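Propose amino acids for all 208 sites.
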């Protein structure tokens, strides 16, 4: 029973913090305000999070879907695995919350650089590790040639970040970028690319 109450309190605080961060900004939201809005005492809040930044990180994890279990991209098909990684999206249910919080998060991260570095690691690391693992498997199996994992991360994640940061308003009017980026990488580094193309290539945007 105590565990259930603890979980309920945890969720109440997350919900209140998400709402207040969006309304007042990060700097303008105090732990006192979060305690009042959630109905959870500060003493209890500090049992769950050491400070406001730890709470903020969990809020951001929630709205970006980083707290959800992710399947490993390891189907045995390098191209399909890369497409899957590059087409993952955060939960639609938090679209509005992300739109409100992202500008505040960028501003806060610029001032609080240690927090910004921690957040970038949390956002980038899962995708980075997934791509590195796929490329390592591809190289080891002789499927990919003349590419190292770090270069692959830059080539594959760079266009996605550019699209996310600079072309948000064009997303609805353009095809999804992930499959095109993965297929361009495949054509450049796949040992079997000629054979694949001779057989008709890969269907655009195919999904598991």
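Proposal:
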């Amino acid at each position: 029973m105590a565990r259930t109450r603890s979980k309920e309190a945890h969720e109440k605080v997350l919900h209140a913090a998400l709402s207040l961060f969006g309304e007042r900004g990060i700097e303008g939201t105090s732990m006192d305000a979060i305690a009042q809005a959630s109905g959870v005492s500060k003493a209890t809040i500090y049992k769950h999070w050491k400070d406001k930044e730890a709470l903020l990180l969990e809020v951001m994890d929630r709205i970006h879907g980083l707290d959800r279990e992710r399947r490993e991209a390891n189907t045995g098909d390098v191209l399909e695995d890369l497409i899957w990684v590059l087409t993952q999206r955060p939960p639609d249910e938090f679209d509005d919350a992300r739109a409100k919080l992202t500008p505040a998060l960028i501003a806060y991260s610029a001032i609080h650089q240690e927090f910004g570095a921690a957040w970038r690691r949390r956002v980038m690391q899962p995708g980075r590790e997934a791509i590195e693992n796929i490329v390592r498997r591809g190289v080891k199996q002789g499927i990919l040639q003349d590419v190292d994992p770090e270069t692959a991360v830059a080539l594959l994640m760079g266009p996605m970040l550019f699209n996310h940061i600079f072309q948000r308003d064009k997303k609805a009017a353009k095809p999804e970028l992930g499959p095109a980026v993965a297929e361009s990488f495949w054509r450049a580094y796949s040992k079997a690319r000629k054979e694949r193309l001779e057989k008709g290539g890969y269907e655009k945007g195919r999904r598991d």
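The radius of gyration is 21 Å. The chain has two domains: 2-50, 78-198.
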